[in-house]
Amino acid sequence: MNTIFKEVLHKGLKQEILIKKVLVDMTSKYQKIQVFDTLIYGKMLVLDGIIQVTEKDEAAYSEMLVHPAMQILKNPKDILIVGGGDGAVAEEVLKYNFINKIDLVDIDEEVIKVSKRYFKKINKSSLSNKKVNLFYEDALNFITNTKNKYDLIIADRPDPVGAGKSLFKKKFYNNVKNILKHNGFAIFQSGVTFLQKKETIEVIKHVKSIFEKSGVILTVVPSYIGGFMTLVWSSNQIDMLKSKVIKGRKKIKTSYYNDEIRKASLSAPNFIKIILWNIQ
Ligand code: SAM
C-alpha cells in the first residue's frame, strides 16, 4: 500500500511524494535519516524531513556543483567536499582521473553507511574509492584545523538548519579561503532563491566580503521545489565569467551538464542579479 512523504520546508508550501517502500527510518546522533523508494524520483534520501538527493534528478545538482569548475581549472588535484555524504558529488569529481584525492567531510557516518548501501546508482561506490578520504566531523572544525590546502572546495551542504547551520557562518567562508591554494576555487550550495532569498543573500554577502571574485551558477533540480537553485562560486584569482574550458580537458559523460549549459548557467534573472548588484 503506497504511503505519502510530505516535505514542509517552506512556509505555506509543501510537496507530497508517493512512497512505494520505506527502506530506512532511523535517527542518528545528528538527524533523522530516511530513505524512500518513491514512484516518481526513485530512491530518495531525506534528512530531518528535507529532501537531500533523489536518483532521478541528482545530476542537475551534482554535475553543476562539479563540472563548471573542473572544466575551467588548470590543474585541480586536491578536492575538498563539505557534506556530500550521499557520494553523488564525489562520483562526479572521480570522473577526472588526474585528481590526487578527495577529502570528504560529513558530520554523520550513518549517512555514509546508508548511502553506500542504497545509493550505488548515483554514487557508483565513490565512497569506497581509494582516492576518497572520509572524515566524520563538523566540517567547520575540519576546515579550521586542517593544514591541507585545496584546489577546489565544494560545499555540498544541506539547508542552514540543525548541524548544517555551522556551514553558513561567516567564519566558515573565511576558513574556506584560508585553505584554498593560490588559484583555488570554491562553490557553495546556496538555496532555491525564489523561496530561500534570505539564504542566498547571506551567502553572497559573506562571499563578496571575503573573496575578490564571485558569482552564481544556476541549476534546476525538480525535487528542490521553487525554481532555480543558486550555487555561489568564489575565488581570489579565477573569474568564472571570463574562463574557458581548458584545452584538451577530458570530455565527461553527463546527463545534465554540457558547455552551453555551463555558459548559460552563469547568467541570472533580475531577481537574482539585483541581489548580486545590491551587495557591494
Ligand atoms: N544536496 C543536498 C542539499 O542541497 O541540501 C545536500 C546533500 S548532502 C547529503 C548534505 C550532508 O551534509 C549530509 O550528509 C549531512 O550529514 C551533512 N552535514 C550537515 N551538517 C554538517 C556539518 N556541520 N559538517 C559536515 N557535514 C554536515
Brief description of this entry?
The chain is of the alpha/beta class and 280 residues long. The chain is built from 9 helices and 12 strands.
Would you write up a description of this structure?
The protein has 280 residues and is an alpha/beta fold. Helices cover 28% and strands 33% of the residues. The chain has nine helices and twelve strands. A hairpin with a 2-residue loop joins β4 (42-47) and β5 (50-54). The protein is globular and about 55 Å long. The N and C termini lie far apart (54 Å). The model has no long low-confidence stretch (mean pLDDT 96).
- Beta-strand share of residues: 25-35%
The largest beta-sheet arranges its strands as 8-7-6-9-10-12-11
N-to-C SSE string, H for helix and E for strand: EEEEEHEHEHHEHEHEHEEHH
Largest sheet, if any? 7 strands, mixed
What Rg is obtained from the alpha carbons, in whole angstroms? Answer: 18 Å
Name every ligand kind in the structure: S-adenosylmethionine
Indicate the structural class: alpha/beta
Shape: globular
| Beta strands, count | 12
How many DSSP helices? 9
What's the overall average pLDDT, rounded?
A: 96
Terminal residue distance: 54 Å
Helix content: 25-40%
What are the low-pLDDT stretches, counting only 5+ consecutive residues below 50?
A: none
